[in-house]
Amino acid sequence: MLMSITYSEKSQFNKNSNYIAQELAFKLGDFENSVLLFKVLAHALRDNESIVQEFDEAIFENHEAFQKRFEQLLQHALIVATDSGTPPVSQVEALKIAEEYSPSQLAKFFGVSVMTIHNWLKQNRFVGFKKAGSKKHNKIPDDTEFITASGKRILIRDVVSMWQAQEAEIMQKEESDLDYYTRQIAYYEDKYGDEFKRTLGTKEKLTPEEETDAQVWQHLLGRQKLEFRDKKK
Fold first, then answer.
1. Is there a domain that residue 139 lies in?
2. Residue 47: which domain range?
3. Sorting pLDDT into bands at 50, 70 and 90, what band is 86?
4. Same domain for 108 and 88
C-alpha cells in the first residue's frame, strides 16, 4: 500500500523546506550531485513549466539563488505529492502555503508606518481579517486582500512580491559581480577563520560539509579571479 502524506507531515515539510533545500543543495558531499538531483527533480515533476522556464545554469553559481530555487522546487514537489486530483486555481498561488505577517512586517512591505497598518486594520481595509484584542498579536495571512485608496483589491502576497522584486533590483544595481563573489568568499573566510589556502586548502581529509564548502569556495575564488582580470582590461 502506498504511504500517504499526513497533514502534519505536509505542514512540517512546508515549515522546514528552507532547511531541507539547504541540506540537499550544499551538504550531499558533492556539489555536482546536488546539481544533478536538482535537474532530475526539475524535469521529473509534472505541471512545473512555469517554474522550470525561470531556471538557467547561472543559478548554480549563486549560493543564495540555488538554495531559493531548490526550496521552490521542493514546495512544488509537495503540491504534486499531496494533490488530490483537483488542479490548483493558479500555479503561482499553489507554490506556497499562506504565510502570515505582523503589522511591523506589513509596514515594511507597504512602505508606511506601523500606525498606518493598525488604522487600516480598524478600517477593515484587509478583507475578512478581524483585528485581535489589544493583548494579542495580529498575524495577517498573505492570501488576504487589501483594499487600496482607489478601491482596487490586491493580495498581500503580491505586495510582498513587488517589494522583493524592488529590493532585488536595487541590490543588483548596487552590487557588481565582483562585489558579490567577494562577499560570498568573505562568508567562508569568516566561517573557517582565514583564507582558503590556509584552511581547507591545507587539509587532506575533509568532512562532507567541508568538501561541499571547499568546492563552492574554490568556484567563487575562480570567478573572482576572472572578474579581477576582466576589470583590468
1. yes
2. 7-94
3. very low
4. no
